[in-house]
Design brief:
single chain, 473 residues, alpha/beta, Aconitase, domain 3, five-stranded parallel sheet, 19 strands, globular
Length: 473
């Protein structure tokens, strides 16, 4: 493919390479390289069946069970039959159309945004869609990846294409060395708090800068995963040597000489030096602190040494009302120190923070210590579960008093029955703290894995940095 010409961003390069045609109104029909499906895609399959159409490219479609999969042993419940039916339905749908499916117990099963990159199905320059809003995770490897709705799922299943309006382009540059104890989750929450939940609406984000380049691929996945929480269509990072090292040897990645040629082509995807972006933001890594959300939106994030905001200090009446409403739901009071907020439960998992790097970080803090509150750790995939058990991480979690579960979305959204009781409060490594997200009346505080571990040990939201210093060699 030729990428020569006027300066372009990686966003435009991938977009332009995948445009099939453009409507008079400006919408473009894009070719889709990968389509990931799960239990939430059943409505799309239903539309395909109603039209008596085949799946256009089953070889480019991959299924996985994740949202409804049980992640821990539990007695049969009233909703168990619904959970089983959802899993059986997606298994039947994929089998009917000859689509590869990774169901419960399969060695490749896991959360879609964790398991698919592990298999090398996520590659730089690809267009990737899935009926899940956090599909932007795959942008960490230089893919143009975004979530789609049920009717769009059906359209891709039947045509392997999708009509889209090209988003505006935003660059977020983070430079400098991250302070000790600061993670990709903290970077993401800092950005969302700064931009607001709608600050990147109608944009695609490219993350740039020395701090981003220093992140591991797993850290980049966490950052890109949370792009949608700032309102953006997607977030991605240009490929580099770290990207290539992650992909080399993976099952569905190019191999041998083909891999070397692919790396050369992937490097050409990076944004040109003089690229113009519609919007730019610049962030100093030294300004980022361990972050925690206090309210009911990811934008309600503050440094852990902060306090719950006072709505009377906001001149915007609607903003003040939203803050007051969030404080009421969360059972807090204005001016309350975040570190004085007690928690009832800890959840470590989700497509945001369930990779081996996340589990290692939490286990390093928990080793040899005992938690004051209960919690669940759910690895992101079967492969990660096996690796964590081999490394002794699972034993650290259970010895500290946390439950070691199976891979799946679990308590991130609670579709499989993993929920909090009404009024319970969690420190959670997930991506959304909306009202009722972890169960009716549940209260969620978003944190990084190491901050979740610290909260589990103390029973309240806690700055993990002093504990980390105790463990420093």
């Amino acid at each position: 493919m030729s990428l020569a010409g006027a300066p372009q961003s990686i966003i435009s390069k991938i977009w332009n390479h995948h445009v099939i045609t453009q409507s008079p109104e400006g919408d473009c029909l894009l070719w889709i390289d990968r389509h990931f499906v799960h239990e939430g895609s059943n409505h799309g399959f239903g539309q395909v069946a109603a039209r008596q159409r085949p799946v256009a490219r089953p070889d480019l479609t991959f299924g996985v069970a994740d949202h409804y999969v049980p992640t821990r042993a539990r007695p049969a419940s009233a909703g168990a039959s619904d959970i089983i039916r959802m899993i059986e339905t997606v298994s039947a749908n994929t089998a009917r159309h000859g689509i590869s499916m990774f169901g419960p117990g399969h060695r490749n099963q896991g959360i879609v945004h964790v398991a698919m990159p592990e298999l090398g199905l996520t590659l730089p320059g690809l267009t990737i869609v899935c009926g899940d809003s956090h599909t932007s995770t795959h942008g960490a490897l230089g893919a143009y990846a975004f979530g789609i709705g049920a009717s769009e799922v059906a359209h891709v299943l039947m045509t392997q294409t999708l009509w889209q309006r090209k988003p505006r382009e935003m660059a977020i540059t983070v430079d400098g060395i991250l302070p000790a104890g600061i993670t990709a989750k903290d970077i993401a929450l800092h950005i969302i708090a700064r931009l607001g939940a709608g600050g990147a609406t109608s944009h695609a984000i490219e993350y740039r800068g020395s701090t981003i380049r220093d992140l591991s691929i797993e850290g980049r996945m966490t950052l890109c995963n949370l792009s949608i929480e700032a309102g953006s269509r997607l977030g991605l990072i240009g490929p580099d040597e770290n990207t290539f090292a992650y992909l080399k040897g993976r099952a569905n990645a190019p191999a041998g000489d083909d891999f070397e040629r692919a790396c050369d082509a992937w490097m050409q995807l990076n944004s040109s030096r003089d690229t113009h972006f519609d919007t730019e933001h610049f962030i100093n890594a030294g300004d980022i602190a361990p972050s925690v959300t206090w309210g009911t939106s990811p934008e309600h994030a503050l440094p852990i040494d902060g306090v719950v905001p006072d709505p009377v200090q906001f001149s915007d009446e609607e903003k003040a009302r939203q803050i007051r409403d969030a404080i009421d739901y969360m059972g807090l009071r204005p001016g309350m120190r975040l570190q004085d907020i007690s928690i009832d439960y800890v959840f470590i998992g989700s497509c945001t923070n369930s990779r081996i790097e996340d589990l290692r970080a939490a286990a390093a803090l928990l080793a040899g210590r005992v938690c004051k509150v209960r919690g669940l750790v759910s690895p992101g995939s079967r492969r990660i579960k096996q690796q964590a058990e081999q490394e002794g991480l699972a034993a650290i979690f259970t010895q500290a008093g946390l439950e070691w579960g199976d891979p799946g979305c679990s308590m991130c959204v609670g579709m499989n029955g993993d929920i909090l009781a009404p009024g319970q409060r969690s420190a959670s490594t997930t991506n959304r703290n909306f009202k009722g997200r972890q169960g009716p009346g549940a209260r969620t505080h978003l944190v990084s894995p190491v901050m979740a571990a610290a909260a589990a040990l103390t029973g309240h939201l806690t700055d993990a940095r002093p504990m980390l210093k105790e463990r420093a060699p």
